[in-house]
Design goal:
This protein has about 300 residues and is an alpha/beta fold. It is built from 9 helices and 16 strands. Helices cover about 40% and strands about 25% of the residues. A hairpin with a 2-residue loop joins strand 6 and strand 7.
Length: about 300
């Protein structure tokens, strides 16, 4: 007699089938950061998820951060990491360190994907003028070499996807004078998802999702429409760190991305659980009323 555990596995695969059909050959942008980049086991499971998405027909693009690693290296050279309104103050020396660390992280992720049998190419936002920026200010304050994206040139990513590569993007860009700037990885992922007309944008974070009350874990919201997301932003009740992330979600939806997911990257295989099961585990942001979260047709 067939053991129940094997039947359960078959049920899981069948549950995933309509999602695989719905999103076959569609682009999904994964913003990869937080604890999932620091914990080696979590790092491996995230990359396994993305590789599986690729092998079942998705077209994933990874946009990664590296903030914790950058802070570690800044401290190593005797500097104190500084932040203003959540943005890293980036002087010339810090910019050099940030680019070095981000490129190191980028190639480590390339190697991890390649080890699982999928072709990957790591690119900087400087390559092919992928990410053009201007100097960014934080409420009028000069925060150094931090860039605000003004233009995304999607050709290099389109070419890589066409040739069956998995692109891995490091969030560094240049201005019109070819000066290098650090870019917030959430901003980079959002801009790339819009320009690439991605079907999905997934943010891996260190929280379960969006809460109506940040102090009460039972108020986790499984789905939000854009108007509700705007109301939460305006209310200021979602916690300071979530406001810019939610704003990026709204911008992405209004820019043409069908669905945005905020996921807890500390949960093993969070991407697969959110995308391939009937009950997601994070928060999904949708365009408008009438588009149902579980409607995969």
């Amino acid at each position: 007699m067939v053991k129940q555990k094997y039947l359960d596995k078959a049920e899981v695969l069948i549950e995933a089938l309509p999602y695989i059909q719905r999103f076959n050959r569609k682009i999904i942008v994964v913003k990869y950061g937080g604890s999932a980049m620091v914990d080696e086991q979590l790092k491996k499971t995230v990359i396994q998820d993305v590789v599986l998405l690729k092998l079942v027909g998705f077209k994933p693009i990874i946009v990664h951060g590296g903030g914790k690693e950058i802070s570690r290296w800044v401290s190593k050279v005797g500097k104190e990491p500084q932040f203003i309104n959540g943005l890293r103050v980036t002087d010339g020396e810090t910019m050099e360190l940030a680019e070095m660390v981000l490129n190191k992280v980028n190639k480590e992720l390339v190697a991890l994907v390649e080890s699982l049998g999928v072709k990957a190419v790591g690119v900087s936002g400087k390559d092919g003028n992928l990410l053009k920026v201007e100097k960014k200010y934080s409420n009028g304050q000069d925060i150094g070499f931090v860039g605000n994206i003004t233009e995304v040139n999607p050709k290099i990513l389109s070419d890589l996807l066409e040739k069956d590569f998995l692109p891995i993007v490091c969030p560094v860009g240049m201005d019109e004078n070819y000066q290098t700037y650090n870019i917030n990885a959430d901003d980079a992922a959002c801009a790339i998802a819009k320009q690439m007309h991605a079907e999905k944008l997934a943010f891996l974070t260190d929280i379960e999702g969006v809460y109506r009350d940040p102090q009460d874990p039972s108020t986790l919201i499984s789905k939000l429409f854009v108007k509700e997301a705007r109301d939460l932003i305006d209310s200021g009740n979602v916690g300071g760190g979530m406001i810019p992330k939610l704003q990026n979600c709204v911008d992405a939806i209004e820019g043409g991305v069908s669905r945005v997911h905020i996921l807890d990257g500390r949960i093993k295989h969070c991407l697969l659980l959110e995308i391939f099961t009937d009950k997601g585990i994070g928060t999904a942001i949708l365009r408008k009323d009438g588009i149902q979260y579980y409607d995969v047709q």
